[in-house]
Specification:
Strand content: 5-15%
Strand order of the largest sheet: 2-6-5-4
Structural class: alpha+beta
Helix content: 25-40%
Order of helices and strands: HEHHEHEEEHEEHHH
Shape: globular
Distance between the termini: 33 Å
Length: 244
């Protein structure tokens, strides 16, 4: 494919993504970015053998060790889960956002495993899977102030409190899964999906950067700033005489 054709293809994909956003502009739509379109919607803690007792122990350990760093008198069980989720702990929560650009960032910036070449066709090179953005129309979000997430009996979409800056920056929401090992299935809910071909990941990442959606914005901390500047340096983006 010629450079001109490749550029036109990338721009056409971006244009279709903008149309996807326009079709889902109403407030009840929530989005989730997937590094691979083949990923199931399963919380991190449920992707391998799920052990409820181990889940409780690791969360209790996190709460005990993080309390001195949080400097807050009152935190609900949902607050602890939310904070743990955004600091890398596997939980029964799954991240969503009301901003499709944020979902796109997570979709194109993740690095899923490369798909092995087909043994029956050795001439075919190994491929990276395409990314995807899932959209779910969620008409009601639950306030978890007086509810223990471990008491829920069905998947619930919830509003987090603003204890973690990155959740606020990401326009974040959560789904809470009583059975974290089961793929998400919400009955009678409208849904949609936009696929980003793997070859367009760098183009989308650059477009999102110029729209202010980068690791520095997403993480809202020094690590995020450093990661963004490292990406800019590696890709020679906004590092000239005019840089930011």
């Amino acid at each position: 494919m010629s450079p001109v054709a490749s550029r036109l293809e990338r721009e056409e994909c971006w244009r279709k993504f903008m149309e996807f956003i326009d079709r889902h502009a109403q407030a009840p739509w929530l989005f989730r970015g997937l590094g691979s379109k083949d990923y199931e919607l399963v919380p991190k803690i449920g992707r391998e053998r799920f052990d409820p007792a181990k889940e409780r122990r690791i969360l209790s350990n996190f709460e005990r060790r993080c309390r001195p760093l949080l400097r807050r008198e009152t935190l609900t069980q949902f607050d602890i889960l939310s904070i743990a989720q955004h600091h890398g702990l596997p939980t029964r929560l799954m991240d969503w956002t009301s901003n499709p650009l944020v979902a796109a960032y997570f979709a194109v910036s993740s690095k899923p495993p490369v798909l092995a070449a087909d043994p029956a066709a050795p001439e075919q090179a190994a491929l990276s899977p395409d990314a995807a953005i899932m959209a779910y129309f969620i008409p009601a979000l639950r306030d978890m102030t007086d509810t223990n997430p471990f008491d829920l009996t069905e998947v619930t979409f919830a509003i987090p409190n603003g204890h973690v800056p990155r959740i606020v920056n990401q326009k974040g929401f959560f789904s809470i899964h009583p059975d974290p090992s089961a793929p998400l299935h919400v009955r009678n809910v409208r849904r949609d999906c936009f696929v980003i071909p793997d070859r367009h990941r760098p183009f989308f990442r650059k477009k999102l950067f110029y729209l202010g959606i980068d690791t520095a914005h997403i993480s809202a901390d020094l690590d995020g700033i450093g990661a963004t500047l490292e990406w800019q340096y590696s890709n020679d983006i906004a590092v000239g005489n005019v840089n930011y």
